[in-house]
Amino acid sequence: PAHPDVAATLHSLGNVYRGLREPEAAAQCFSGALRIREATLGPTHAETARTRHCAALVGCSLGQRPAAAQELQAAVDSLINSLGSRHPWSLQAR
To answer: Do the Cβ atoms of 62 and 27 come closer than 8 Å?
Structure first.
């Protein structure tokens, strides 16, 4: 179901899989979370940007560097635009 709570759970699971060094499983979770967050919160919402950032980090570890770099920049831009450049999430994404 496309609900923000489902996206939050998928995002959290993605972080668990990242911690377990299982990037393929993490990528699936972040992809699902991103799809839901884009549909329910919009593509530039801060929560969407956080998921985009995590998905891009996993993409880097899977060797998808050019696409991941674009996604990282999109996440940074969204976070700065929605939260400001001094917010901890914006600083972390850089």
So the answer is: yes
Q: Is the distance from CB of 58 to CB of 14 less than 8 angstroms?
A: yes
Contact 37, 66 (CB under 8 A): no
CA-based torsion, 26, 16, 49, 35: positive or negative? positive
Token output for 21: 């060094």
In 3D space, the residue among 89, 14, 8 whose CA is nearest the CA of residue 55 turns out to be 14
- Model's pTM, two decimal places? 0.92
Do residues 56 and 85 touch, judged by C-beta distance below 8 A?
Answer: no
Can you give the pLDDT at residue 25? 98
Q: Is 3 exposed, middle or buried (0-12, 13-18, 19+ CB in 10 A)?
A: exposed
pLDDT at 82: 94
> Residue ranges of the chain with pLDDT lower than 50?
none
